[in-house]
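Incident review: delayed structure delivery

Summary: a single-chain prediction request sat in the queue longer than the usual turnaround. Root cause was a stuck worker, restarted by the on-call engineer. No data loss occurred. The affected request and its eventual output are reproduced below so the record is complete for anyone auditing the incident later.

Affected input:
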Amino acid sequence: AIIYDSMTLTSPDQPEYEMKVSGADTADGASLEKPLMEESVSTLGLKHAFAKSHGRRRTTSWQDLPQKMRGITMRELDDFVEAHREWITGKLWRCSACGLSTGSQTGPCFECNGTEGKLQMKNLYEVCKHLIKPICEEEKVSYVEYLAQRRCQEEGESKGVAVNTFVSHWWGEEFANFHAALSRYSENRCEAAISNPTIWIFVVTWVVASVILAAMWCIVSPPPTVSYSPSKSPQAIQILWNTWKEDYKRLSAMSIISDMVAFAVASFVYWRSRRILQRRRSQEWSFWICAFANNQFAIDHAIGSNDNLSTSSFATALEADTLMEVAVIVDDDVVVYRRIWCAFELFYARVVLPSKKDISPRVVLINKGGLISDGDAPRTTVRKLEEAMRSVKTAEAKASSESDLRAIMEEMRREEATPEMLDELLRLISQGGVGAVKLRRKGLELMFLFSLSVLLCTLGVTEFVLFRRSLYFNVGWIFLPVSFLMVGLMHRSCQRMLAKFGLCAQRTPVFYVLRQRSMQVALLVNSPILIAVICSLPDEA
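Output delivered after worker restart:
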């Protein structure tokens, strides 16, 4: 028999609150081992009348729509935000002490009488209370189940959306920033499918810009004529100096400037083309987000049976066979490192799953500015992340519920893990993100220096051939060793970074070019400029 009663529920990582719901005895779901993936959620349309009046058991809910199929696409998340953007982005005064909003743009706090606070947009606590729950109240289901029911009505049958990325985050972050971080992440993750096209767009644009600039030289600045007799050897040094001073020095300077301008133009076109292509593909990327995947009217469904967190919705979603990554959203104040649920999700993904399930999802750090773990992040985020690394202490992490905190600590003890081990794990993840940011910045510098070094090398060879009569005083003897040294240093630097940062460096387009196509790119880019230099030299030379 199913026993229904009223109970007080506490949501993971939400403020403690009381809520009267009708729900099945939680012990009923204790035998659930693995959600059924093949059953269609078309049956939800037939069962939701029972759910509205009585509430569903955990087993029934998870069989109708398994956690691994409770993804919400970027398109659906965009639609949700756009429908309520004005309310979501509206700023209200929020108390710094308790985190509650006064509902106006001024303090003090009605709850704790705090006077320190700041204007902020709505966070996920408020979005859940004022948007998600009212939308789902009639069916008493999660928002993802609500979407599945609508798809069922429109398309006739649906199996839900397979999860691509598990999102670990703090509910107190402004929801608009949360949405921006996921939007930027989905675009970056779709870059893999378009990396080759955009790289060659970068190369072709660089070559075209070089050709145009080289043609402009020949039209705008025709070469002067220098008359001299090369048979007069006593004057050879003076002739070489005058030729260099009047022509080659000018042409060399112009070639370097043109190389810089062409590189800047190609970088801009590459960035714009990548953004356009990414946007088109990123709309179908899916996320598991607790606020949307868990039933907010039956939070006990999300918690593991008998406080066994390995059967919780969080752990079950992390075991999805379609899961690619765990994305940790780093908020502006890096509070995510001080929330015990966020720490547990990282611990479960990096420690428990590899040892017990042979699953190793990659953990990446993201924020509204970009994908930190791949080096796409602003300097302010890097500084805050470095500060958080030095002060992180999981033993002092907080949870909205003491029972959640005890359950997580007990789970860690069962896995023979200590808070210090988790601290070290968090530091390693953060260090990878900080290192990636520094790597990305060095990437463009290395790309330009590599092209410049090849240009100098070719200029040196050209001058050596043109002025071979003055072999011992040839300026090419300076260019050649310097340029060869620069090429060697560039190659060595790339190899060290690839070895140090591994996948992160391999995913950075600049390092892909340097590793796979460096000489081809350098020759393509510099050939038009060198041809213009040779054509612009005096005929007598």
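Verification: DSSP finds 19 helices and ten strands in the chain.
Action items: add queue-age alerting; document worker restart procedure.
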